[in-house]
Design brief:
274 residues; 2 domains; single chain; 11 helices; 11% strand; alpha+beta; 4-stranded antiparallel β-sheet
């Protein structure tokens, strides 16, 4: 890795720590994982949040080295040590700063955006923040649960724990934060996705190609396929178009071939071609 990559990871960790100290700690919002447990433990036992995060991170690093590949665990080392350190330092800096945000929903949204932006930068460099990132990988590799399901399960457990300590309102605001930051992670890693990809299976490929080429002004690729059940030959059209042309193409397909089957997905990056 180059210096630029390490600086990106450092920036991501700093953004996460600032979001935690400014938006989560003062308003008791539970952002799941180590961070959420740290806020809960501070309420119950008056333990500094950075200490709880450090202890949990160290414990999960040790368990990670036992159950995961060493190279994978190494990618969590920076986050495991630096995240609690920056939380402690920024906690001192922001201790006497009052942002006076009276709207908890706004706090949950902005905090979620900040945390998601920071995590997205870290993940984009192939690293983790440590803590529950490792736990969810351990669960997914040693149980029947995949990584996404393991993440949802651990998120829900921490949220319910937080609800018992802080109340149902905290559960709602924390859920908003988690939804926002996970959405933000995808946007940082993959981009906004200004294009849409169409796979169109139709018996009228010439008419649909005419719409794509002449009306919309885009290129299209024709593929040949065969139905696994019907054994009939089918034409498959593949085209990538801007979002602004999505409904025009969709309506055109339905107008020409009401029985056409098509699949649409976001294209986060398009390169080559004319």
């Amino acid at each position: 890795m180059k210096l630029r990559n390490y600086l990106s990871i450092l920036l991501g960790i700093i953004i996460c720590a600032i979001s935690f100290d400014i938006f989560f700690v003062p308003y008791s919002i539970i952002p799941s994982g180590n961070s959420g447990i740290a806020i809960i433990f501070n309420k119950l036992f008056c333990i500094n949040e950075s200490l709880t995060i450090l202890m949990l991170s160290m414990m999960l690093l040790i368990i990670g080295f036992m159950f995961l590949k060493k190279e994978e665990v190494k990618h969590a080392l920076l986050g495991s040590f630096l995240f609690p350190l920056f939380i402690y330092l920024f906690g001192i800096v922001f201790k006497n700063i009052d942002l006076s945000i009276d709207n908890n929903l706004l706090t949950a949204i902005v905090g979620g955006v900040g945390l998601g932006f920071g995590l997205g930068i870290i993940y984009r460099e192939g690293h983790y923040l440590g803590g529950f990132d490792l736990l969810n990988r351990i669960i997914s590799e040693n149980t029947v649960l995949d990584f996404s399901t393991a993440t949802i399960v651990t998120d829900v457990i921490v949220l319910l724990f937080g609800a018992l300590v802080f109340g149902f309102q905290t559960f709602i605001y924390s859920s908003v934060t988690i939804f926002i930051y996970r959405l933000m992670i995808d946007k940082v890693i993959f981009g906004i996705g200004d294009s849409r990809s169409f796979y169109i299976i139709t018996t009228k490929p010439k008419e649909i190609k005419k719409i794509i080429i002449e009306e919309l002004g885009h290129g299209v690729t024709t593929l040949k396929g065969k139905g696994a059940y019907s054994k009939e030959d089918r034409y498959i059209l593949f085209v990538v178009i801007p979002k602004r042309d999505y409904y025009r193409l969709k309506d055109g397909i339905k107008r020409i071939d009401d029985h056409a089957f098509f699949v649409v997905s976001s294209s986060y990056e398009v390169g080559g071609g004319k």
